[in-house]
Amino acid sequence: MGVGIDGGFMDWVAVGLCADVPVRTVVPRRVMNTGLAIWCSTAGVFHAWGDRCPHRGMRLSHGFVRGETLSCIYHGWTYDRDGACVSIPAHPDLVPPKSICAAHYDCKVEGETIWVALQLTQAPVPDLGARRAIRSLDVALSAETVAAKLDQPLTSVITIGGLHDIALAIQPGTDTDCLLHAFAAPDQDRKAVSQALEYLRNELEAAE
Amino acid sequence: MILYDYVLSASCYKVRLMAALLGQPLTLRAVNFHPAREHKSPAMLTLNPNGTLPVLQDGDAILTESVDILRYLTADVPAWRGEDDRWLALAADLNNSLGMARLHDILQFDVDIDAARAAGVKQLRKLEAHLTDQRFDGRIFLAGDRPTIADIACFPNTALAPDGGVSLDTYPSIRLWMRAIRSLPGFIEMPGIHRLHELEVAQ
Amino acid sequence: MSQSINDYWYPVGLLSGIDASRGTLLLGVDITVGRTGGAFWVKDAAGNALPTVKRFGHLWTCPGTPSGDLFTIPEADTPGRQLVDVGSVRVKCSPLRAVENFLNIAHFPFVHTDILGAEPHTEVERYNVDIREEVNEVWATKVKFFQPQAAKSAEGGITTEYMYRVASPTCAVLYKTCPPRPGEWDVITLFVQPLNEEWCEVWPWMALYDDDSTMAEMVSFQQLIFMQDRSILENQIPTKLPLDPGMEAPTQADLTSVAYRRWLKKIGYFYGAQLVAA
What we know:
The complex is a heterotrimer of chains A (208), B (203) and C (278).
Chain A: E1 3-5, E2 8-10, E3 13-17, E4 25-31, E5 34-40, E6 46-50, E7 64-66, E8 69-71, E9 78-79, E10 85-87, E11 104-110, E12 113-117, E13 132-139, H1 143-149, E14 157-161, E15 166-174, E16 177-184, H2 190-205
Antiparallel strand pairs in A: 1-2, 3-12, 4-5, 5-6, 6-11, 7-8, 8-9, 9-10, 11-12, 13-16, 14-15, 15-16
Chain B: E1 2-5, H1 10-22, E2 27-30, H2 42-47, E3 55-58, E4 61-63, H3 66-73, H4 85-107, H5 113-136, H6 149-159, H7 172-182
Parallel strand pairs in B: 1-2
Antiparallel strand pairs in B: 1-3, 3-4
Chain C: E1 10-14, E2 21-26, E3 29-36, E4 39-44, E5 52-55, E6 58-61, E7 82-85, E8 89-91, H1 95-102, H2 108-111, E9 128-132, E10 137-147, E11 158-168, E12 171-177, E13 185-196, E14 199-208, H3 215-233, E15 241-242, H4 255-267, E16 273-274
């Protein structure tokens, strides 16, 4: 089964908008307390890896992308598309043992969005309808609290509807924060939607 | 031009970075801000009675606020100016929130750390909202289509936020803006703000 | 041979920087550090005086019963050297992670780019490491690395030679090629005060031959280097240093850190360490 959350499961979790992770960049994401490094290769292939270099535990999300590889910022250890270590700069002639590997997770791109499955799943990626991606917002509340305040069950995508026909792909983070990836009807002015999302966040975060 | 400088100061870095991006030579005079508090020495107080850094000396002219120095350095380069004031005000706010949080965490400055971090997060969200709007218009910098002193003034304290315990993990537009600045020709780094290794080709 | 973590000497202040009194933490416990007239003192939370030593520009204390004298660094006493108080910096990391980073050179081209190292000169050649039982210290010798700017006193790139010495669980000394005086070693130390297991105060100190740089320039250089490491140290997972193999994958270049971890296990020093692989 997928990521367990009170009252529901998420097979696929949205971790970002493609526009926010352009080629040759890597970003950190936390999903249910699992640290991830989401990166896009030079050829435009997305990857979701555990945010930890097997050498000395440095966060891979601080690293750098060259070609189709991600390198750790600490000692430059370089990992290829399958997570296998292919280069250890301190020993240029060494072929790294196959056991040295970054943890990796299934990653799919659909609806301008990067989706990650923390456990193997056959489920399809959630459908966002005809909506287009707007932006991501951090919220200082758990995903459960956000869903409760929106009076909806916690699932991968929560539909708000309204004037802009907003849908939110929820990324549960920790007990005290989450990320909302927001989508709206394609004919809506994005700045107006962004402003509406800011209001929504203020309301969600307002003390009871 | 001589810059009385402290290597770890975000405000001094604004000046060093601006000069580097302009290709303007700057002679650096290291001041032992920590641990010796040399910025408060009689010699430094003669130069700047406020006892602060940066201090820029150009012939007889002495300038002591980083914003004034940025304006001075770009006096003849209008492309770097723009609708600055709103963002220069935000730069001052970032200095007082994220900047002070950093000095608290690293050098044990006496600061209400929770208030500083909370104010910093509010300002980062404001910055993120504006930069997101800019991206909707196909722009990456704060004011207009190209970098201005607004970007240079806001960049250091923003980029160093993690030094003060404020994460930048969840601000996609801020991250892309920082990357654009770090990609500018002539960009120089400071401790806590790395160059982009992606730009170098491995052996 | 295991001694209590409380029985070691720890740095708690810079002699030139202590006036009045200041509260701080040592091994998770409140202490106060101060000066009255010409005398420096350290008190525990109950107000009892703790033993103190003044050495290498710093005030040292021992919260338990000192098992011996504080280690010595003979080079520090030779005339002609600049003795540099670099000033302390706090880091949210295990004190042991801070020491281990100091012992490592493979990160130079990536973290201290164009200063202590640069691509493509990334190779770390074999060097020697041993645990010296008679003094209970870890030493690495015959370490060398090509550096674009090895020190404030260096003009251009040189192949620098190093020796590393772990003099106590949270204190390390490095000896490096001295550009103005070939044949002598510049000495750079990292004295780490464990505030608690996940937070430390780092007190670097140096004894260098350099008649050209100002004190401010030498201080700046070392602070720059250390602050570049800080962004790494605060982002290592797990926070505590794993002492059991299996969690992290070392290579030949990591011999010093492997010996350090093995030595910590041997002497039973687990403060800031974890034993079971997470």
